[in-house]
């Protein structure tokens, strides 16, 4: 998978990559990540990438011209037609199914927004997916882009040592995951459930499924209702 990040602050993405599971994918030649400095595509001597919004109002907006040029550059060098993603509070809320779908693509481009957002014409011309990471606002698009990317990269075969670990995570089947325990068997009077020590794989699987349903019903009734409709 080829992944491009368009950002006015490339050092942020570079730092995140080095401390992420995706770095293993790079070392295995499974992922190719390019960080594109948006300021390289502006004619302004101060490398300015934002301006005041038409119609007035508070804040600044990222200009269309540098984004047009940087996106055209990416599109000219990427082998296969990419999906272009812009993290935005107005986008579809990020869910596991979205990450699974995007993990099937061979190339992706992330636009890291700042300030009040980006010129709408960039979205209209280029963007395939506007995705929201939640009902809150982050101070920069590098973080939201990387959140989305992380959910995708871990699903690309070979990035994780055991892909089955990802396939049994929370949300995959509209349920939260069951609780986990490891050594020691007892600490401060708290013991590991006996069923997990039984060696009976069927009983263990049944216990885990019951726990998943229980915790989802208690903590995420919205997910539980979706699960029950299946």
Model description:
It is a single chain. With 230 residues, the protein is of the alpha/beta class. It has helices spanning 10-18, 22-27, 64-77, 96-102, 120-126, 141-153, 163-167, 201-219, 221-229; strands spanning 2-7, 32-37, 50-51, 61-62, 83-93, 107-111, 129-132, 186-187, 190-191. It folds into two domains: 2-153, SPOUT methyltransferase, trefoil knot domain (Alpha/beta knot, 3-Layer(aba) Sandwich), CATH 3.40.1280.10; 170-229, Orthogonal Bundle (Trp Operon Repressor, Chain A), CATH 1.10.1270. 39% of the residues lie in helices and 17% in strands. The longest helix is centred in the last third of the chain and has 19 residues, at 201-219. The model has no long low-confidence stretch (mean pLDDT 96).
Task: Compile the SSE list and pairings.
Layout: E1 2-7, H1 10-18, H2 22-27, E2 32-37, E3 50-51, E4 61-62, H3 64-77, E5 83-93, H4 96-102, E6 107-111, H5 120-126, E7 129-132, H6 141-153, H7 163-167, E8 186-187, E9 190-191, H8 201-219, H9 221-229
Parallel strand pairs: 1-2, 1-6, 5-6, 5-7
Antiparallel strand pairs: 3-4, 8-9
Helix pairs in contact: 3-5, 4-6, 8-9
Label the overall shape.
elongated
Count of discrete alpha- or pi-helical segments spanning 4 or more residues: 9
Mean pLDDT: 96
Order of helices and strands: EHHEEEHEHEHEHHEEHH
CATH architecture of the largest domain: 3-Layer(aba) Sandwich
CATH homologous superfamily annotation of the largest domain = SPOUT methyltransferase, trefoil knot domain
CATH class of the largest domain reads Alpha Beta
DSSP strand tally: 9
Q: What is the straight-line distance between the termini?
A: 33 Å
Trace the largest sheet across and list its strands.
Answer: 2-1-6-5-7
Largest sheet: 5 strands, parallel
> If you consult CATH, what is the topology of the largest domain?
Alpha/beta knot
Tally of distinct domains: 2
């Amino acid at each position: 998978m080829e992944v491009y990040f368009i950002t006015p602050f490339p050092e942020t993405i570079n730092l995140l990559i080095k401390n992420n599971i995706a770095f293993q994918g790079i070392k295995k030649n499974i992922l190719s990540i390019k960080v594109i400095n948006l300021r390289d595509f502006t004619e302004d001597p101060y490398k300015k990438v934002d301006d005041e919004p038409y119609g007035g109002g508070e804040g600044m907006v990222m200009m269309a011209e540098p984004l047009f040029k940087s996106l055209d550059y990416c599109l000219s060098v990427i082998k296969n037609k990419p999906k272009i993603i812009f993290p935005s509070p107005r986008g579809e809320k990020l869910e596991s199914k979205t990450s699974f779908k995007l993990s099937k693509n061979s190339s992706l481009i992330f636009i890291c927004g700042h300030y009040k957002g980006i010129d709408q014409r960039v979205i209209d011309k280029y963007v395939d997916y506007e995705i929201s990471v939640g009902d809150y606002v982050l101070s920069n698009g590098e973080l939201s882009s990387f959140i989305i990317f992380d959910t995708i990269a871990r699903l690309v075969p070979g990035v994780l040592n055991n892909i089955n670990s990802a396939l049994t995570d929370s949300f995959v089947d509209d349920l939260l995951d069951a609780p986990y325990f490891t050594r020691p068997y007892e600490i401060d009077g708290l013991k590991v459930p006996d069923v997990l020590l039984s060696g009976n794989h069927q009983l263990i699987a049944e216990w885990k499924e019951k726990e998943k349903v229980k915790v989802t019903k208690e903590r995420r009734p919205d997910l539980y209702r979706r699960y029950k409709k299946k």
